[in-house]
UniProtKB/TrEMBL annotation:
PROSITE patterns: GST_CTER, GST_NTER
SUPFAM superfamilies, alphabetized: GST C-terminal domain-like, Thioredoxin-like
Protein name per Swiss-Prot or TrEMBL: Glutathione S-transferase family protein
Organism: Nostoc paludosum FACHB-159
Domain GST C-terminal: 85-207
Pfam families (UniProt xref): GST_C (PF00043), GST_N_3 (PF13417)
Assembly notes: Homodimer.
Length: 221
């Protein structure tokens, strides 16, 4: 039995959740409250680095979302969520890694704004917007006449980038300059798996005091 330990507010968790749903797998969903539950011995026995998500498959523990996605693709290859062609596979992998290494770190500056909180250094925000624009332009260049990155079918690139890029308008970054990417986002948002895994207003409200407490600790430090 597959068990996913996750938080509904986390894009890292959501990419695994979406993949499990898209592959039609049976799994148990266990929410980890990020107010300290991730530091309890029970969860540290699964992931000693206290991060979510974590996946347990019949006692086998997998951490790090990209490793989890590779595991799911290898063990449950139908439907296939990675292209076979070398160039198309490279496109999918680039989208995954650029999202994790470039886009997601740049969006963290907007977390208070996403949660409806004040804050944010204007200079840091401007630098983040420049980095995000570079990523979005790059992604736009990778899309061709196919509906997904390097594929006619949904891939792990969508599971990863598709949990971050559609959030851009929420923090005031328009996708209007990227018509292919904008249409790609619309396709993803319309999918039942995206709708089923979207963070609710209650999820966001529950996460807000955790962020406020962290911001207070940083400011006092």
């Amino acid at each position: 039995m597959l068990t996913l330990y996750h938080s509904p507010i986390s894009p890292n968790s959501r990419r695994v959740w979406i993949t499990l749903l898209e592959k039609g797998l049976e799994f148990e969903l266990v929410e980890i409250e990020l107010d300290g539950e991730q530091l309890k011995p029970e969860f540290l026995a699964i992931n000693p680095f206290h991060h979510i998500p974590a996946l347990v498959d019949d006692g086998f523990k997998i951490i790090e979302s990209l490793a989890i996605l590779d595991y799911l693709e290898a063990k449950y290859p139908t439907p296939a969520m990675l292209p076979k062609d070398a160039k198309d596979l490279a496109i999918a992998r680039m989208v995954q890694l650029v999202t994790v290494n470039e886009l997601l770190p740049a969006t963290t500056i907007f977390l208070p704004q996403f949660l409806g909180l004040p804050g944010g250094d204007p200079e840091k925000i401007e630098k983040a917007k420049q980095k995000i624009a570079t990523v979005l332009k790059f992604f736009e260049s990778l899309l061709d006449d196919r509906p997904y990155f390097g594929s006619e079918n949904l891939t792990l690139a969508e599971a990863v980038a598709g949990t971050v890029v559609p959030l851009m308008p929420i923090v005031g970054i328009s996708l209007s300059e990227y018509p292919k990417l904008n249409a790609w986002c619309d396709r993803l948002i319309a999918r039942p798996t995206w709708q089923a895994t979207e963070a609710t207003a209650e999820d966001i409200a529950a996460f807000r005091p955790i962020v406020v407490a962290r911001m207070s600790q940083q400011n006092s430090g």
